[in-house]
Amino acid sequence: QVHVVESGGGLVQAGDSLRLSCVASGNIFSINFMGWYRQAPGKQQRELVASITSSERTFVADSVKGRFAISRDSAKNTVYLQMNSPKPDDTAVYYCNVDVAHDSSTRYFSYWGQGTQVTVSS
């Protein structure tokens, strides 16, 4: 079907910059949505951090607005999360979500990556 793979996570000092990448591959006719979610330690829910649509409409959560930015390279089925001035509260597993159509029916299906750990030290 579709594989979604995140990369770029790791340990970073507060105030440094980090860029996460997510690549979707496989049976992809079109993509209408790509988003970054995170799950903080001790929390059960995944929080939407930022998203971007095929028309490049973007959403950024208030908690990261002004610090994080989302962008997309549609030709490479890749979405990025630029993390500037990260804080310890940004520590989480970051997951990439992609809505994919497999054919011209434009019925979309949701795929998730395995997640990448981001740890921000003070």
Characteristic terms for this protein:
122 residues, mainly beta, seven-stranded mixed sheet, four-stranded antiparallel sheet, 11 strands, 59% strand
Write structural notes for this entry.
This protein is 0% helix and 59% strand. With 122 residues, the protein is mostly beta strands. Strands 2, 4, 5, 6, 9, 10 and 11 form a seven-stranded mixed β-sheet that branches. A hairpin with a 6-residue loop joins strand 9 and strand 10. It is elongated. The termini are far apart.
Quick gist of this model?
The chain has no helices and eleven strands.
Question: Which SSEs are present, and which pair or pack?
Answer:
Elements: E1 2-7, E2 10-13, E3 18-26, E4 30-39, E5 47-53, E6 58-60, E7 68-73, E8 78-83, E9 92-101, E10 108-112, E11 116-121
Parallel strand pairs: 2-11
Antiparallel strand pairs: 1-3, 3-8, 4-5, 4-9, 5-6, 7-8, 9-10, 9-11
